[in-house]
Design brief:
Chain lengths: ~240, ~550, ~425, ~140
């Protein structure tokens, strides 16, 4: 990242080029940018990217789907500072290899999540209803999301989100929550980029917690397959056997 | 804009006595895209079909909706009418307002009518989005597989090989013949059961088309009609065979009493099958009392096992012929038809005694100094009488085999609440399963006499032989396809497909998923796995199903009072 | 050239046999005596033990049969003669004159509306009338009218001709003659089914003498939505809704002087009908007089238990000794012996009595057996003595299935009919 | 006040649960007229998106019925349904809806009575939950 004219933006530095005065204290979804760049890297050369822990997980999701060749992406581990961790309510901020920065421990709790789950369901619904009314369907959340892989978004289909106007209906947010349930790496980019200030990261965290409880699975590990894609092997369900047989 | 015709069936009174068909017709005619809405007393009658055919032609319809009974029985019929009138058969949509409406809401006609309207609206909204399809074909492995080497399996195998079809016969025991091995004689035939059985076994063994696998169990089945891959476990060794069709002939076993009538405690109290073995030895039977319905036609096991009365009649006659005496203690003598009724008459005439007991007052068995006494309340006389006996034979029902559950699971075919296999339709498809290419015969379906078993085995053999003789099966056009523009090649579909029919390929410089349609069986698992709207199933596209939901919302929530 | 098979009888057994034989690749000629296929099953309202609507499940099969490329229907036709031997039987079929150009008739029914002659309707078991030109029932296959030459005034007296005037298709042909069709058949299948024994011969049961005594098949028609009463349960004498019904089993069957055998299906259809009447008239009470309750098929005993517990059907083990008219025109008095400890005779009044008569081999089956040179058993059903091939008659290449061989229910008939296809496959394997 | 009659959408697989529903019909098993069956080939083809869309539009309850686990006509189709639907239920819960509005159950072709029981129970349960609050939420 480099500051130019008062704005901090991502910068690409070629081999042999002087990196100059770069900054690493501003959170930015570099993996989303990498995913746009990657198809153009037809020369077979490698690229290094500054990766926070969440970026590392996002990369794992890319590798898993065969979008990036593992050996062409070199990770420069960046440990987030305390302020960044606080903003993301991040529980897992330390990359596997720390090249830059001081490692700090994660936070166990997200105050908003706790508050929401302590509410009655009516209150919780009212909360989200208030939040989602602000949505102006700008698709910033999906565009900036590193693990939204589709070119055309299903949420633009009237089949699934029937409301033509703005704001979209609840299905917009529910379907997005479902799609991210087995791949959201909790980078917080959706929440950061949302012009309406909807606490989207909190919704992700709520669903992620349930998902982990049910299936013992968290996204961001290249080795594990999403439980939504596996069979029940060995598991039995209630009502499996017909009682009368 | 589609041109939709909607046809509502009265089904005589079956629908019309609950649902106001006229009201549904009026409503249907207001739905978008509907050119004509009509009704028939019986849409499936020649008259009904003819009027649909004419309406398609006169109104130049390009989509047809019939609201009647269930697509599971009647869809082919209406599809063929569409074809005859020049409309692709996949432009037909079936709405079930009988099984799913009139029959189950018989006491609330107004609500049922409203529901029928909503169901029709949903069907019409789907129909508007239907697209014409063409069907594929797949070849058939010219081999059959028969599971079970008892009477049913043997006869089915004999028939298939006689028709020139290679057949694998799988038997879990070390010898063929099943229950028949233990039976003394088969009424009403004069020859001994073992002579008859040997004749059939020899016939099968002599054919070079019959491949007999003894000590063998079914281990795994994959594939579909025409091309099943079956893994057998032959005496501990795995063996793979391929088959175009499968016949289930796993039979049944006799119920072993759990202490009823002194079984296990009073000597001389034995089951019918044990008595068959006694008769086989030629031992003098002495005084014999047969007790019918032991463990059947009572709470817990309600059914009548069909063959036990006739077996007792046959054995009672044998007892009398051997100089003994026989008494049959029964609740009803189930000797239906000509042959068995004659046997009943013969037994009566030859001196077999019949005493009727009531379920509420079953016979009691006492041990005596010599022999056994059976105390029975005779319903006809209204008196309690005692009969002395050397043996008490308990006629127990046939019950399903424990391992039929496993066979059912492997083949994905259902069983009824008693564990007998459940055929596709109890009246008109007695030897078929709902699953194409898998058939059923003999006592695995329901207790059957030898003669009935033979008929059913021949029936199942015919059903199995048909696809093999035709050499091909048609693949219904419900397979999946990919909208390449929307596909992001995430691979969810590849992992979700149970048939490994999907792969990621490079197409026009883009990585996309591709469906191999001959492998696709049309389950649609990939559709739900796709995070986008790229994966679609023919006849069940996301737009079609989405439209049905929208329609329900519109008619149930927005327009209801 | 595919080998040919002749199937005699277009009931459910014949239809199923045709479909399976045709699917195996043989050419099938179905010979049916009446103007439509469908047989007895077409007359039934519902079927036991699921109460599935009979025509609803039969109709698709009838239509498939008519539309199959390998099946040729010869309706209103009879077997004239049979020569030759297996596998080259020479079968001569007489296609009786319908007096209709079958290719022109559209089945519109204009002629039927205008025809002035009314005769008892066989399909409705005489409960209503039909015209001299008629379609046997609305779902008939083929949907073509037939002129009943015995009753048509134009044919008998050369007076009338209304149907010809109204027929816009020009399909009426009063001078049409019977046509003969010769077929060399590799095999012949007999599926001639059953008729009802005429229970008026047993005078103690009052059929004919009491207006409110009907046969079980008449009740099926009364219960049918398409039947003579539009599905309303009414008794013949006064058209009123009966509240108390009785069914008598084994009328003529299991009878030493009449028919010794058991007709197999009556216990179950009486149970079914007693449930159905309750669905039509909720407070109707039914009593079934029976000898042995033979509920041996899949789900049958459960069906009987349900009738007894849920529908309040009273099962009475007794064979009524006499049936007399009740006071006046309507109702019947049934006298029967009590059992179960309380002995003695009892006379009870019922609003309507339904007889379940013996089901006998269909009319003409004895003559047919003569033409086919097959033996009958002592009950006059076609003899099928083979243990291994229970659908073989006594003559090679002639097969029998369904009720023609022995009393049996629909699924047993259907299983046998499919079996016929296998048996033909076996017999004709390697035969050129 | 009239008793609340929920509107319910049910997805039934062709091989087991739709056949079970047919059997319930043939057996004349009576049940409330609130349930609208959509036939699909396998429960695995039911996109969770359909369920969420229906709930979002105000449908009071959605039933997804498949073959019993192990009996799926397509081998493992219903395994996937069994994995997907609980996630939908959790999302409902997390945004403040009752997760009982979505139910997954298994009905075989032989279980007409089970079908009736599932329908009666589910209608009863959803009726107790009251109208889907999203019905009144028009964004």
């Amino acid at each position: 990242m480099r500051e130019e004219h008062g704005n901090v933006g991502p910068v690409m530095i070629s081999k042999g080029e002087d990196p100059g005065d770069v900054r690493t204290d501003v959170p930015y979804q570099l993996i989303t940018i990498l995913s746009n760049l990657y198809p153009w890297m037809t020369d077979g050369k490698k690229i290094a990217v500054v990766t926070r822990k969440c970026d590392e997980k996002a990369l794992a999701e890319f590798f898993k789907r065969g979008y990036f060749a593992r050996d062409r992406v070199i990770q420069i581990g960046l440990a987030c500072n305390r302020e960044q961790i606080r903003q993301c309510r991040c529980s897992d901020p330390v990359p596997s290899v720390v090249d830059i920065g001081e490692p700090h421990g994660g936070l166990d709790t997200d105050a908003l999540s706790e508050k929401l789950m302590a509410m009655s369901s009516e209150e919780r619904l009212r909360f989200w209803e208030y939040q989602f009314r602000k949505c102006n369907k700008c698709f910033a959340c999906t565009t900036n999301c590193p693990v939204c892989f589709c070119d055309e978004c299903v949420l633009e289909e009237r089949t699934f989100v029937p409301e033509r106007g703005v704001p979209p209906g609840m299905s917009f947010h529910m379907i997005r929550a479902y799609h991210l349930s087995d791949k959201c790496i909790e980078c917080g980019e959706c929440e950061r980029s949302c012009p309406a200030g909807i606490p989207l990261l909190t919704l992700r965290k709520l669903v992620a917690r349930d998902f982990k409880e049910m299936y013992g699975f968290s996204p961001g590990d290249e080795k594990t397959v999403s439980p939504l894609l596996t069979t029940l092997e060995g598991e039995s369900l209630d009502g499996d056997e017909c009682d009368e047989c | 804009m589609p041109r939709i015709g909607v046809f509502i069936c009265h089904c005589g009174h079956n629908i019309a006595s609950t649902v106001s068909v006229e009201e549904v017709v009026r409503f249907a005619s207001t739905l978008p895209g509907v050119i004509v809405a009509d009704h028939n007393l019986y849409s499936c009658s020649e008259e009904g079909l003819d009027s649909i055919r004419k309406s398609i032609e006169q109104n130049k319809l390009d989509r047809v909706v019939v609201a009647a009974c269930t697509p599971r029985t009647h869809e082919p019929l209406f599809r063929s009418v569409c074809e005859q009138a020049g409309v692709n058969k996949y432009l037909f949509e079936f709405v079930n307002i009988r099984e799913h409406c009139s029959w189950i809401h018989a006491k609330e006609p107004a609500n049922a009518t409203e529901k029928a309207k909503r169901l029709v609206a949903m069907g019409v909204s789907k129909a508007a989005l239907l697209e014409p399809q063409t069907e594929g074909e797949s070849s058939v492995t010219p081999t059959a597989l028969v599971i079970g080497g008892g009477l049913a399996g043997l006869r089915a195998t004999a028939s298939l090989v006689a028709q020139g079809i290679d057949t694998h016969l799988v038997e879990k025991e070390s010898r063929l013949g099943g229950l028949l091995n233990d039976i003394s004689a088969l009424a009403p035939y004069s020859e001994d059961a073992s002579t008859l059985l040997k004749e059939l076994v020899d016939e099968v063994k002599a054919s070079n088309k019959a491949h007999i696998h003894l000590n063998t169990k079914l281990q795994g089945v994959t594939g579909f009609v025409g091309n099943f891959n079956v893994v057998l476990n032959e005496a501990g060794k795995e063996k793979e065979v391929r088959a175009g069709a499968i016949i289930v002939a796993t039979g049944a076993r006799d119920f072993i009493p759990t202490g009823e009538y002194g079984y296990g405690s009073v000597p001389g109290v034995i089951t019918q099958l044990e008595f068959e073995r006694v008769l086989k030895t030629g031992e003098k039977p002495g005084r014999v009392v047969f007790i019918q319905c032991v463990g059947s036609r009572q709470p817990g096991r309600e059914y009548c096992s069909r063959i036990c009365c006739n077996t007792s009649l046959k054995n009672a006659l044998k007892v009398v012929e051997a100089g003994g005496t026989a008494t049959i203690v029964h609740r009803d003598i189930m000797s239906s038809g000509t042959v068995w009724e004659e046997l009943y008459r013969n037994a009566s005439e030859k001196g077999v005694q019949f005493i009727r007991y009531m379920l509420s007052d079953p016979p009691r068995i006492h041990k005596k100094a010599t022999g056994i006494a059976a105390e029975v309340y005779d319903e006809a006389l209204g008196e309690r009488i005692e009969v002395d006996a050397d043996r008490v034979v308990l006629a127990t029902p046939l019950v399903s085999r424990v391992d039929s559950a496993e066979v059912g699971k492997l083949l994905k075919v259902p069983r009824d609440k008693h564990g007998f296999f459940l055929e596709a339709h109890v009246k008109l498809r007695p030897v078929e399963f709902a699953t194409d290419g898998v058939f059923i015969c003999g006592s695995a379906r329901w207790p059957s006499s030898a003669k009935e078993t033979m008929s059913q085995a021949l029936g199942a053999a015919a059903k199995a032989a048909i696809p093999i003789k035709r050499g091909k099966v048609v693949i219904e056009a419900i397979t999946a396809w990919v909208d390449a523009d929307k596909c992001a090649a995430c691979g969810n579909c590849v992992v979700s497909c149970p048939y490994e029919a999907i792969e990621i390929v490079e197409q026009d410089g883009k990585r996309v998923a591709k469906v191999n349609e001959t492998q696709c069986k049309g389950c649609g698992a990939c559709v739900a796995a796709c995070p986008n709207d790229a994966m679609q199933q023919r006849g069940f596209t996301t737009r079609q199903l989405g439209a049905m939901i929208d329609s329900l919302v519109k008619h149930a929530l927005e327009e209801s009072p | 050239m595919p080998k040919k098979v002749v199937v005699i009888g277009g009931g459910i057994a014949g239809i199923q046999a045709c479909l399976d034989i045709a699917e195996m690749g043989y050419e099938v000629h179905l010979v049916e005596r009446t103007p439509s296929i469908g047989g007895r099953m077409a007359q039934l309202d519902k079927t036991f033990p699921t109460n599935d609507c009979s025509l609803c499940i039969l109709s698709p099969k009838m239509i498939m049969c008519a539309g199959h490329e390998n099946i040729k229907l010869h309706t209103y036709s009879e077997i004239q003669s049979v020569g030759g031997e297996f596998p080259r039987f020479k079968v001569r079929i007489r296609e009786k004159a319908r007096h209709i150009a079958i290719n022109r008739c559209t089945g519109c029914g204009d002629c039927v509306t205008k025809c002035p002659v009314k005769v008892p309707n066989e399909f409705e078991e005489g409960l209503s009338t039909r015209k001299a030109i008629y379609l046997p029932f609305p779902q008939a296959v083929p949907r073509k009218v037939t002129i009943d030459a015995v009753h048509c005034r134009m044919i008998t007296e050369k007076k009338c001709g209304v149907c010809k005037k109204v027929c816009q298709a020009g399909a009426i042909d009063y001078d049409q003659k019977d046509a003969l069709v010769d077929i060399v058949a590799a095999a012949i299948v007999v599926t001639t089914g059953f008729d009802l024994f005429d229970a008026s011969a047993l005078r103690q049961y009052g059929l004919g003498a009491c207006k409110d005594v009907v046969t079980s098949l008449q009740l099926e028609r009364i219960l049918s939505a398409a039947g003579p009463t539009g599905g309303h349960l009414v008794r013949p004498s006064d058209g009123k809704e009966p509240k108390k019904l009785a069914f008598v089993q084994c009328v003529g069957s299991r009878d030493a002087k009449m028919f010794q055998y058991c007709s197999s299906v009556c216990c179950m259809y009486a149970t079914k009908e007693s449930i159905l009447v309750r669905e039509h008239v909720p407070d109707v009470e039914s009593t079934i007089f029976y000898m042995d309750m033979r509920a041996t098929g899949k789900g049958f005993q459960e069906f009987v238990n349900r009738a007894e517990k849920q529908y309040g059907v009273r099962y009475m083990r007794s064979r009524p000794a006499s049936v007399q008219p009740a006071h006046g025109e309507s109702g019947v008095l049934v006298t029967y012996e009590m059992v179960g400890g309380i002995t003695g005779q009892k006379t009870e009044e019922f609003d309507m009595l339904i007889l379940c008569p013996a089901l006998v081999p269909s009319r003409g089956s004895e003559e047919l057996s003569g033409l086919l040179k097959i033996e009958l058993d002592k009950d006059k059903f076609a003899s099928t003595p083979s243990w291994k091939n229970p659908i073989d008659s006594t003559r090679r290449g002639v097969l029998v299935c369904g009720f023609a061989a022995e009393p049996m229910d629909i699924p047993d008939s259907v299983a046998q009919a499919s079996g016929v296809a296998s048996r033909i496959g076996e017999l004709l394997q390697g035969v050129s | 006040m009239t008793e609340f009659k929920p509107t319910i959408l049910a997805f039934c697989c062709n091989w087991c649960s739709y056949a079970g529903a047919d059997l319930a019909g043939v057996s004349r098993l009576q049940m409330p007229p609130n349930v609208h069956v959509v036939r699909v080939m396998c429960s695995a083809s039911v996109k969770p998106e359909y369920v969420m869309k229906a709930i979002s539009q105000g449908i009071d309850g959605v039933l997804v019925l498949g073959c019993h686990v192990g009996d799926c006509h397509y081998m493992t189709g219903n395994h996937r349904t069994a994995k997907r639907m609980p996630v939908v239920q959790k999302i409902l819960k997390d945004i403040g809806l009752n997760e009982k509005r979505v139910r997954l159950d298994w009905v075989s072709a032989a279980e007409g009575e089970k079908f009736q029981k599932v329908i009666v129970d589910f209608v009863d349960e959803v009726a107790k939950l009251g109208p889907n609050p999203l019905k009144e939420v028009r964004f």
